Amino acid sequence: MRPYSTGYVINRWTNTGVTGIANPSIVGQEVVSSFNVTQVLSNNIVSTVTSVGNFLPANIATSGIQYHPVTVDVVYNLKDAAGGTIAPLMAIGRIVTNIGLEAENVALRAADRFPLSTKNIATSSVATDRTVCGARYYEFELSDVNSVGGLYKSTAVGGTRLLPLNNTNGGGWSITPGVSGTGALAQNTIYMTRIRPYFAAFAGGYAAGGWGTTLNDITKIKTLGVAGMPTIEDEGVIAERSFNGVTTSIYPNPNNGSSVNLNVDGMEGELQVRITDATGRMVYSNRYIVEGAINTTMDFGQTLAGGVYMVEMVQNGQLNTMRMVVNR
After folding, report:
1. Residue 252: pLDDT above 60?
2. pTM of the entire structure?
């Protein structure tokens, strides 16, 4: 921290030849991005702390550590002998510090992956498995396993990692990376996924390495055969209900009576689940806190008798019901 300083400027330099003294007159040494640190703490003291992601893109999907040379300039707003304000002064940083970034990855979150979840393209959403420091938004690539090429769509600007699949404004999917479009996803389709974060502080926006991995092709989604209706596949029937942007599904259905999978997408808050048999007797009850989405297994603790059961779900005061069939 420098006394009387009113801010700091972090400069990221090209890697070529930067070993000690930053000198832009040397070929290969130039500032490629800068970030102003101006957050004021208590007593008018400017913070000297900022996230690395504000001036460096994450090291996405590479094999080793990346090194980036940086310097720090100090800004002063001083007064003259009479107490008047003079033009800001900047002390140019000359000592280069190399910052190393370990390789990392970004992928589709587990709760969105098929066969754990099957997506309704009108109401469902997907998300990254985590937040990448400094990312302004995330671009998704969905590639149909049966065709060449992909579809592209980005999350909203502001760091959110949640991407709606809905068909608002034509769906928003494009056949060109980095460009908005009006296309939509197909029903009853398996898509392989890749995701890349966009960084406002980085020339070109995307990190070297760009796209995250598909984790050996396991990060894929599947869309429902008919929007809002059950679909029948090898994994069984998925019963689904959608209301006010919240999609809830249980699968397999029918099941063997020992457990069933519950998937909820697009919800924030408390979810109460109760399952009753044909006589109205409660055979299962639980309470869940949902933060965007959950995918969990409801273990009944006993093997239910064959028959039809009612699954009652109260989401933010709204009651929805689905039928569950046990075959034994």
Report:
1. yes
2. 0.63
